[in-house]
Amino acid sequence: MSFRRRGSSGSTIWKRRRSYQLRVSKRRLPKWLSEHLRRRKNRDAVRKRDGDNCWSCGYPMRFGGPPFNTRRSATIEHVLAQANGGTDDLDNLRLCHKGCNRHLGTNPPEQKERMRPRRV
Ligand SMILES: [Zn+2]
Q1: Is the pLDDT of residue 24 over 70?
Q2: Contacts of 47 (CB under 8 A, 6+ apart)
Q3: From the CA of 93, how far away is ligand 1's center (Å)?
């Protein structure tokens, strides 16, 4: 009696959990994860085209590894800012330090071109 009850309830839970897991794995990736992967794909593509140096100041970039989130961290700069209707086309993307990126802000492309320190 007790054996049968334990056995049947156990298999029911196992089946439910299994079907639940299958449903989760077939769903789309969470938004933040797909966003992250898309950005990293863009960054790698730009890096392959432009090399490892900052578009703005010409100094090398930090890719991965601690400390994260410094002014030297690699970011993607939109030459025509997204706020002004810029797209994720590779033509519009440059590798930039986080600090340089913030410095350039959402200025129009011509002004960014003038703001570039070109220290190299
Ligand atoms: Zn820079």
Answers
A1: no
A2: 63, 74, 95
A3: 14
